[in-house]
Write a structure and sequence with these properties.
The structure is a single chain. The chain is of the alpha+beta class. Helices cover 36% and strands 29% of the residues. The chain has four helices and nine strands. The strands form two sheets. Strands 2-7-4-5-9 form a five-stranded antiparallel beta sheet. A four-stranded antiparallel beta sheet has the order 1-8-3-6. Helix 3 packs across helix 4. It is globular, with a radius of gyration of 16 Å. It comes from Streptomyces xanthii. This is Cyclic nucleotide-binding domain-containing protein.
């Protein structure tokens, strides 16, 4: 199991159960743009089925894929930190079903239950560290390959 899939599993059962009371089931058709860098980040998702591609914008029309996400993975952390704007973009690579959580409601729950908040923050920090390393590796590889970034266009 990777750091990405540990977010819910790392929470004690009572905290996981409390957090899941805030979950709403959602779906995204294949090729749906879920969010873009810089847009307001009001929620996050735990992917149940399907695949999502995280990407970073390297020019006005060019996106660099960073990390594939699948079942059990956390999609989005920007809801947790001001200014609550997405740091990456995300697109459904296949049809996706996910649990959606309202960021403000989860932050409120964390304020009411600080131990849950600390546990959740540790899990999100693990995911962030993994994703930032992935982004760095992709950017360095792209630069080394051709002296410029190889990308796909949206």
């Amino acid at each position: 199991m990777t750091a990405q899939t540990r977010l819910l599993n790392r929470l004690p059962r009572e905290y996981r159960d409390r957090l899941m009371t805030l979950a709403k089931e959602v779906s995204f058709p294949q090729d749906t743009r879920i969010f873009d860098e810089g847009e307001p980040a009001r929620c996050f998702w735990i992917i149940r089925t399907g695949m999502v591609t995280l990407d970073v914008r390297v020019s006005d029309r060019t996106l660099l894929p960073i990390d594939p996400l699948g079942p059990g993975d956390l999609l989005g952390w920007s809801w947790l930190f001001p200014p609550y704007e997405w740091d990456f973009g995300a697109e459904a690579f296949s049809p996706v079903r996910a649990y959606e959580f309202d960021g403000a409601a989860v932050r409120n729950l964390c304020d009411l239950e600080p131990a849950l908040g600390v546990s959740l923050l540790h899990g999100v920090a693990e995911v962030m560290a993994h994703r930032l390393v992935s982004a760095r590796v992709k950017l360095v590889e792209a630069h080394r390959t051709h002296g410029r970034i190889q990308t796909h266009h949206s």
